[in-house]
Amino acid sequence: MNYLRHMAVFAKVVEKGSISAAADALSLSKSVVSQHLKTLENELGIILLVRTTRRQTLTPAGVAFYEKCQQMNQLAQDAWEVAKESQLTPTGTVTITAPHALMSSIVAPAIGELVSVYPAIIPHLIADDGRLDLIEHSIDFAIRVGESPSSSYKQRRLGEFRDVLCASHDYMRRNNTALHYSSAIAEDLQQVDYVANVWQGKYVVHQLFHSSHKDGLTVVLHPTRFADSLPTALALIESGAGIGIVPEFLFEPLAQEGKLTSVVDGAYLMPTNVYAIHAFQSSMPLLVRLCIDAIEARLAAKS
Question: Does the predicted model carry a pTM greater than 0.70?
């Protein structure tokens, strides 16, 4: 690609009217500029400029070649300006994946508000509880819950949320489940039906805490109902199929509507960290940065 540099130097010599003026404009020595011209003419096998001590004149071949060089320089300038403009006004496509727990309540609303301000953004949102590979699926960034395995990807902590161990009022009444925070709770919870996402496994371990107790309690639950996503698990819990964990920002409005209630009054689970994962090694594109900032702000407002 060195010939492109030769062509750019040649065009500058023509525009400035001399090798000396072009050298000053390019911050190069006159000998370097002359070498560019010599190399270009040797590789082309034609004379482009006839130079004397007083003036320089383009040959007919030089005139035609200079026109093409001008077009090349204009294309390069246009590309530069488009790239710079993209750092001022976000445009284009952005692909984001997030678990179901965060997509509908956090990610999609945040991106929707951003698109209303910058309509040239074209979002592709993928709700998936699996950890999709960013490169394989052409994803700009992922929103992940909990720590990610060590990898070459970069991660940025966006905030946190709490899960609530909850059930429907109907389930609580039907099973006479009125639990209080005590050392006996681990045994009591063995008797209830637990709704789990398939990724949680055959045994689910939770650390329960209470503001009136110094130490937390470890409870082990054995799932008897399984779902492949949070919306499905939530539908099972609401319908009275069993107890399960629901993010606090989803639980609260449902509790206010009387659809869900906390299984253990006053108990809470450890906060779960939320991260943005991406593969950008140097500067992050403006569009991606704005999307991550919007999701971070939405999560903070919900926490």
Answer: no
